[in-house]
Amino acid sequence: MENEQEDPERRKRSARRRRVLIASVAGCAVLGGVLALLPWARPAEPAPPSPGALALAAVGSGVPAALPGLAELIDEREKAVRTRPGDATSWAVLGAAYVEQGRRLADPAYYPRAEKALRTSLKVRPQRNTRAVAGLAALSNARRDFRAARRWGEAALKLEPRRWTTYPLLIDAYTGLGEHKAAKRTLDRLTELRSGPAVLARAAAVYRDRGWQEDAAASLADAAAGARAPAERAAYLERAGQLAWERGDPEVALRHFREAVRLDPGQWAARAGQGRALAALGRTAQALNVYGAALAKQPCPQYALELGELYESLGRPEAARVRYGLLRERVRDAAAGGADEELVLGRFESDHGDPKAAVRRLRAEWGRQPATEVADALGWALYRAGEPEEALRFALRATDPVRGGGVRDARSMYHLGMIERELERYGAARRHLAEALRINPHFSPLHAPAARAAIEALGEPPDEGVPEMDDGAG
Predict the structure, then answer these.
(1) How far apart are CA 99 and CA 114, in angstroms?
(2) In this predicted model, what pLDDT tens digit does every residue of 174-189 receive, in sequence order?
(3) Which of 137, 245, 269, 389 could form an S-S bond across to 152 if both were Cys, CB 3.0 to 4.6 Å?
(4) Which stretches does DSSP call E strand in 11-106?
(5) What is the pTM of this model?
(6) CB–CB of 85/252 below 8 Å?
């Protein structure tokens, strides 16, 4: 009987448990559907990387970094080495960031700081510290000390032969020393190890130096298309603009420069490029404005020379002298930071100062780094100093497609033509002056008009006459 009385109670409790369970399942299903519809219930997307993190990735992979990110990265690593002075990696990253910041701002004051940070990293970790050794190669390139860059780059490569970011440093060093075959061999090894935008951009520079202009333009277009970060893409577009300028197409150059500035407002090299292109297109007021803005933010001696010559071509000698004074000041600042700006100073002295002083400076520069552009500048300085015979030897070296790398530069061809005219080699002079204007009719606001005047003064080639033919009549 007792079992019969308990069974109805047990059945009631079981039925209640089943109803509760069903209600719970149904409630969970409804709640799950509601949660799925609520926006806050979706998995959170990862936060975008900070500018400093982007700069760290760029510096570590040898690609251009944005200025705000570099500033953040420097601040972060300065704090890190203060709290952890034995952190060799942070010292090396800090040194590399200083190098990039100095290069982007044309501020050589960053270079002694970079050297101190990189050498501290080596002191903390003297063995197998490839990052610091490669950083010293990058610093040497930025200072235009290409022999040191080659030494540090080869040391870094010996430590880690498959570290692809070392190869571009060596390519720059070999190019600065005029060792174009070594640069091409190094590029070949790099392309075996790595592909991508950074490698394409480096290949474009080698192709340009060898005179393969179409290949260089195609590689830069692919590099810009494949770049992920705006600062990286802007840097490649700036190089594409410079290449278009060298090929005598200021309109295409201007488009590239403007897009580079849109992507990266701190791309001051592209702003200077805009000034160059606008001046060639006759938009002089705009050219002066953008040149001035570039020079204010990135006081590069080369920009000061270009802007000074533009003012001089417009008949404004006082404004030109101000920019030439800035050029001298910036060269002194560079020397204080261990950087070599003797090439641009020699070019300035040749045309606007003391040509004999230019010869002395550029002979010393040639001894340090016998690159194509140094040969061109030294040849021109010798011509301006009244030594055309020796000038011709260097001018021919600068335009030799084998020894000089192959690039056909309008300024170099103009220099060669003017030297040949002085030596009364009139046929060669006409040919090379005409070629300078064919390559880029706007290569200089001062010298392009001088090339046209020289061709006009030379006149047409003399008519040697056609020898009469003997028709055999007796």
Answers:
(1) 6
(2) 999 999 999 999 999 9
(3) 137
(4) none
(5) 0.85
(6) no
- Residue 33's pLDDT is 45
pLDDT on residue 470: 45
**Residue 403 DSSP symbol:** T
User: What secondary structure, in 3-state letters, does 194-233 show?
Assistant: CCCHHHHHHHHHHHHHCCCHHHHHHHHHHHHHHCCCHHHH
Q: How far apart are CA 219 and CA 224, in angstroms?
A: 9
459 conformational bin, left if phi > 0, alpha if psi -120 to 50, beta if neither: left
Q: How many whole angstroms from its chain centre is CA 199?
A: 13
Helices (H), 298-443: 301-313, 317-336, 342-352, 355-368, 372-384, 388-399, 410-422, 426-439
Whats the size of the chain, residue-wise?
A: 474
Angstrom distance (rounded) from CA 343 to CA 373: 8
Structure tokens at 330: 């910036």
Instruction: State the Cα–Cα distance between residues 292 and 304, nearest whole angstrom.
Output: 9
Q: What is the pLDDT of residue 48?
A: 66
CA distance 165 to 47: 28
Q: What span, in angstroms and rounded, lies between the C-alpha atoms of 152 and 253?
A: 35
Cβ neighbours, 10 Å, residue 424: 8
The residue assigned the tokens 């540090």 is 152
Q: Nearest to residue 246, comparing CAs of 293, 287, 286, 214?
A: 214
- Picking from 58, 445, 458, the residue whose alpha carbon sits closest to that of residue 227 is 58
Confidence of residue 52 (pLDDT cuts 50, 70, 90): confident
Task: Give Cα 337 to chain centroid, integer Å.
Answer: 20
Q: What is the pLDDT of residues 261-308, one digit of tens each?
A: 999 999 999 999 999 999 999 999 999 999 999 999 999 999 999 999
Per the CB < 8 A criterion, the answer to whether 373 and 346 are in contact is no
Query: What's the per-residue H, E or C state across 225-257?
Result: HHCCCHHHHHHHHHHHHHHHHHCCCHHHHHHHH
Q: Which alpha helices (H) appear in 127-212, and where do they start and end? A: 130-142, 146-159, 166-176, 180-193, 197-209
Classify 407 as helix, strand or coil.
coil
Which token pair is 204? Answer: 């474009």
Q: To 10 degrees, what angle do helices 250-263 and 230-246 make? A: 170
Give the residue carrying structure tokens 């448990």: 17
